[in-house]
Design goal:
The structure is a single chain. This protein folds into six domains: about 100 residues, Rossmann fold; about 150 residues, 2-Layer Sandwich (D-amino Acid Aminotransferase, Chain A, domain 1); about 70 residues, ATP-grasp fold, A domain (Dna Ligase, domain 1), CATH 3.30.1490.20; about 110 residues, 2-Layer Sandwich (D-amino Acid Aminotransferase, Chain A, domain 1), CATH 3.30.470.20; about 80 residues, no CATH class; about 70 residues, Beta Barrel (OB fold (Dihydrolipoamide Acetyltransferase, E2P)), CATH 2.40.50. The protein is α+β, with helices and mostly antiparallel strands and about 625 residues long. Helix 4 packs antiparallel against helix 5 and helix 12 runs antiparallel to helix 13. The protein contains 16 helices and 36 strands. It has an eight-stranded antiparallel beta sheet with strand order 14-13-10-11-12-15-22-20. A five-stranded parallel beta sheet has the order 3-2-1-4-5. A five-stranded antiparallel beta sheet has the order 25-24-28-27-26. About 5% of the residues have low confidence.
């Protein structure tokens, strides 16, 4: 058995690997960047090594530094987690060449499945059904456009080396193809260093079904059943569950058998996931499920598989990497109960899901009824340099309806402040009638649109309660509240500042019914899974620049990846001006109205800080 392990990752997955390694008596070594010097995974490990500046490309993506850290600390093995270098065949080979154990598949298996076009060709040879599309070497825009036209819209552009929702664009009409292709290639080049793409027919009623597979060095391959990952936003999974709703035994047997054939076709060792797309227009049927890709690593959503099978997949990884056979045979594995996972992201749904960064003054997800995997803690900080996922909440039970209720309750009780999260959005999603009925597909979130968006400002009742609570908190110590007294009349009007938004309200004594916590002169309240910071506002009449007056500011620190306009250009409302990459995602900055580019301060491939004026648009004279 491996005695010492370096985890070449950070955050939630690093903490999760450390937990199992500790239970197995394995010494752990963490690596960290400047931004993660005080991170939870650093403190949980037995030893930690600094590997570089905050940007991932200067730290977590520098394989030589990670291998050097392993050698310097005497670590026998390297576990890559997911993301970063986990599916980098050259890094896996370098680990082996350094005399270390690689906790993952063989480099040649990663190569075989890492390029989606070659992987599909191999799957066809292995008798695994694949979706129609274009896998050709000719990557000229004209050829790609012609192939897309021939396939028929909608089509999906996918980065050949992609994964995790990166480098993927849906195109609904021929005239959109060129712009979408360029955006996809930029993101692919930035994330994977490879801008090649393939095309697939976009299934109009798609379900995303994936199968967990596991192989060992003794020739054994098993599956641990399926997961449904159909609830996605921008191709990023947000809620996953196992087993898949509506999956009958015959279809399950067919799809799992296909997954095992796929793994055997590349002599697979370790944990992997075979991803399928299903046309669910007539329910789940074996003849309408096609191979999409293989992820040659542990998946973010692996906990739901662990919950329904009672297995620890990280323990399996460490045992297999040590040369042991798989802990279970196929006949010893079965599905027990139901599990569901919600990904809690540091992002603001009310602001177009822009990432939210900053200190975690309050962070409490403790709930004895669920499992919580996280890499942050109260007093920590959400950085702009990495993925915005801060926690995974996993509920388990005997029945799906009870699991949905348990997960929703846990999200409602969660407290995260002042960083904003998608918690309220997740609660609304879990309450969606089609989801509850198991009739979801990957387009459900887009179809629901604003119906899933939480209110930007809490209800009038909560505001009144907050105002009264602030009144109770010794207003004589608040010089900005002249004239307010504890024995004031029971009805007053005040202007509250709700996370930067002005909210005039009346408040009365009945506000005492609400329990709210005062922190640094502000009230923190949680309503329907959304946490608000509320205080009395002080306004001096000075208005900052905003999109309303034509000033396009960087909403967060990030890197400008594209500038689509020049000074003096005429633009129309909604036209993309600048693309900003932050927290591993691209965010388009668009024109708020018709006008002219009066000022342009953005330059491609440069870093900007939050609040930087990127573009100034002046309204066009009629």
């Amino acid at each position: 058995m491996i005695q010492s392990l370096l985890i070449a990752n950070r955050g939630e997955i690093a903490c999760r690997i450390i937990r199992t390694a500790r239970e197995m008596g394995v010494r752990t070594v963490a690596v960290f960047s400047d931004a993660d010097a005080e991170a939870l995974h650093v403190r949980l490990a037995d030893e930690a090594v600094h590997i570089g500046p905050s940007p991932a490309r200067e730290s977590y993506l520098v394989g030589d530094r990670i291998i050097a850290a392993a050698k310097a600390t005497g670590a026998a093995a390297i576990h890559p987690g997911y993301g970063f270098l986990s599916e980098n065949a050259d890094f896996a080979q370098a680990v082996l060449d350094a005399g270390l154990i690689w906790v993952g598949p063989k480099p040649e298996s990663i190569r075989a499945m890492g390029l989606k076009d070659a992987a599909k060709a191999r799957m066809i040879a292995a008798g695994v059904p694949v979706t129609p599309g274009y896998l050709g070497e000719d990557q000229s825009p004209a050829r790609l456009q012609a192939e897309a036209d021939a396939i028929g819209y909608p089509v999906l552009i996918k980065a050949v080396a992609g994964g995790g929702g990166k480098g993927m664009r849906r195109v609904d009409a021929a005239q959109q193809f060129g712009e979408m292709l360029q955006s996809c290639q930029r993101e692919a080049a930035s994330s994977f260093g490879d801008d090649r793409v393939l095309l697939e027919k976009y299934i109009l009623s798609p379900r995303h079904i994936e199968v967990q597979v596991f192989g060992d060095t003794h020739g054994n391959v098993v599956h641990l059943f399926e997961r449904d990952c159909s609830l996605q936003r921008r191709h990023q999974k947000v809620i996953e569950e196992a087993p898949a709703p509506g999956m009958d035994e015959a279809t399950r047997e067919a799809i799992c058998a296909a997954a095992v054939r796929a793994a055997k076709a590349v002599d697979y060792v370790g944990a992997g996931t075979i991803e399928f797309i299903a046309d669910a227009s007539e329910g789940l049927r074996a003849d309408r499920i096609w191979f999409m890709e293989m992820n040659t690593r542990l998946q973010v959503e692996h906990p739901v598989t662990e919950e329904i099978t009672g297995q620890d997949l990280v323990e399996w990884q460490l045992r297999v990497a040590s040369g042991e056979p798989l802990p279970c045979t196929q006949d010893e594995l079965s599905i027990q109960g139901w599990a569901m996972e919600a990904r809690l992201y540091a992002e603001d749904p009310a602001a177009g899901f822009l990432p939210s960064i900053g200190p975690l003054t309050a962070f409490d997800l403790n709930d004895s009824m669920i499992r919580c995997d996280t890499g942050v803690e109260e007093g920590g900080e959400v950085s702009p340099f990495y993925d915005p996922m801060i926690a995974k909440l996993i509920a388990y039970g005997s029945e799906r309806d009870a699991v949905i209720e348990r997960l929703s309750d846990a999200l409602l009780r969660s407290v995260v402040w002042p960083v904003k999260t998608n918690g309220a959005f997740l609660v609304k999603l879990l309450a969606d009638p089609d989801f509850i009925a198991g009739k979801m597909d990957t387009g459900l979130i887009d179809r629901r649109g604003d119906a899933l968006m939480p209110p930007r400002i809490p209800t009038e009742e909560t505001l009144r309660g907050a105002a009264w609570r602030l009144m109770e908190e010794a207003p004589e110590r608040r010089p900005d509240l002249p004239g307010f007294r504890l024995n004031a009349s029971v009805r007053r009007t005040a202007v509250l500042d709700v996370d930067g938004t002005r909210a005039p309200v009346d408040f009365t004594e009945d506000g005492e019914r609400w329990f709210m916590e005062v922190h640094d002169g502000r009230v923190r309240v949680t309503e329907n899974g959304q946490t608000f910071s509320i205080g009395f506002a002080r306004f001096d009449g000075k208005a900052g620049a905003s999109a309303g007056d034509g000033a396009i500011l960087a909403p967060m620190p990030g890197r400008v990846t594209a500038v689509d306009v020049a000074a003096g250009d005429t633009v129309t409302k909604g036209q993309r001006l600048v693309t900003l990459e932050a927290m591993k995602m691209e965010h388009g900055m668009t024109a708020p109205f018709d006008g002219v580019v009066a000022e342009l301060n953005a330059t491609a491939d440069t870093q900007v800080t939050e609040g930087t004026l990127l573009v100034k648009i002046e309204k066009r004279e009629p």
